[in-house]
Amino acid sequence: MDGLDEWIKVKREELAVLPENYTDTAMEMNILANALQIRFEKTGSMEDLEESIKLEGKAIELTSNNSPEMPIYHCGLGIGLQWRFDRTGCLEDLNKSIESTWAAIDSTPEDDPNIAAYFDILGTALHIRSRWTGSKQDLDRSIEMLRKAIVDMDDDDDPNMAVFANNLGIALHTMFEQGGSIGNLNESIELRQKAVTLTADDHSMLATCASNLGNGLQARFEREGSMQDLRESIIMRKLAVELTPQEHRNMATFANNFGNGLQRRFEVEGSIQDLDYSIKMKKIAVEQTSWGDPDLAMHANNLAIGLYWRFIALGKGVGSLEDLTEAIEHWRNAIAWTHPDDPNLAAYANNFGTGLQAQFEQTARLLDLNEAIDAGRKAVAMTPKGHPSLLIYARNLARALDVRITRGQSQADLHEICTDQLENHRANTR
């Protein structure tokens, strides 16, 4: 990093004395912006990312629309805005990223060697937006763009081919999740296997490709039940963690994914060592996630689930009660860190209520039971009628209400149980 830091310092000093009307000023801004993005990838410094976005925007301002460099600057701005969206969740950034990358494509000849990369960047941004908004049109267009990137590249020896295959594989995985066929998932896995195979052992992308392949393999395990898929998934996710420096911004994601795979194997095979290792990875994920990152709540929820599983696995004894207490605290944080409109909030509230009810069973503290009921009501209220999870949330709420009725705390709870169960039965049998 010292060499890159020094280079950026020198380049800043050079730009500070260059007049804006100098022929190469815009290109020098683009070069510095690229270096700042490289450092951001390694350190996660938002200051570097913000500076790179400003530089690319200024380069566009200084450049005529018919300049051959204009697509390069639009592409650089699109990448920066997409990365800022990844950190902040600001949809306006993602929309502007897509607009900027479209502008790059529109001003690039079809035979330009950069056009494949532009298709890939646009396809990736459209895929991300489809996951946020649920737009089937964005997802279909994303896959179209990502396929065009691979067709236009048509060279497995090009180092970008691994990136393109990985990104198309991820989009096809999303299509599978949204009601697509097992064929979508199988093609997704084949593409991500290709990405791993094409990536050199010392390349920084190998960790990302391996982790993504692991995600696909676990999804196929959930669908078809092959333990071989689950074991290979864990191997790939472990490789991703081992290849990634502790301070790298992707470590949190890789550790979380690895922890999820280990926990899933624990659920199937019962090895407490897998569960312990899973919790260790999930703690790393929480610790390595920056405050304000949209993934922080998800990582906290996943860690809480692991701790709750260990509380159950160890027989709910006094020693394991610390796990339950910690799990509840992480669920409390996950709810606090989640936007009120986030669709994941209902699941976090349901999990929080489950943990509190378990704590009530250990301590007989009525405050825990009342808070569990409040959380359960929130989960039910936030979940649309007919949603597959609604019946689960309603049953968990009914269980807590039933406990309070047994203790003679509220006869109104009995009416709530009967009403909710009737409504949810009707909603799920239509």
Work out the strand percent: under 5%
C-alpha Rg, in Å?
A: 25 Å
* Mean pLDDT across all amino acids: 91
Please trace the helix and strand order, writing H or E for each element. HHHHHHHHHHHHHHHHHHH
General shape: elongated
Main sheet, how many strands, which sense, barrel? none
Q: Share of helix among residues?
A: over 70%
Class from helix and strand fractions:
mainly alpha
User: Which architecture of one domain would the CATH scheme give at its second level?
Assistant: Alpha Horseshoe
At the fourth CATH level, what is the homologous superfamily of one domain? Tetratricopeptide repeat domain
Low-confidence stretches: none
- The CATH topology of one domain is Serine Threonine Protein Phosphatase 5, Tetratricopeptide repeat
Which CATH class of one domain?
Answer: Mainly Alpha
First-residue to last-residue Cα separation: 60 Å
3D structure, described in words:
The chain is mainly alpha-helical. It is 78% helix and 0% strand. The chain contains 19 helices and no strands. The N and C termini lie far apart (60 Å).
Question: Short summary of the structure?
Answer:
This protein has 430 residues and is mainly α.
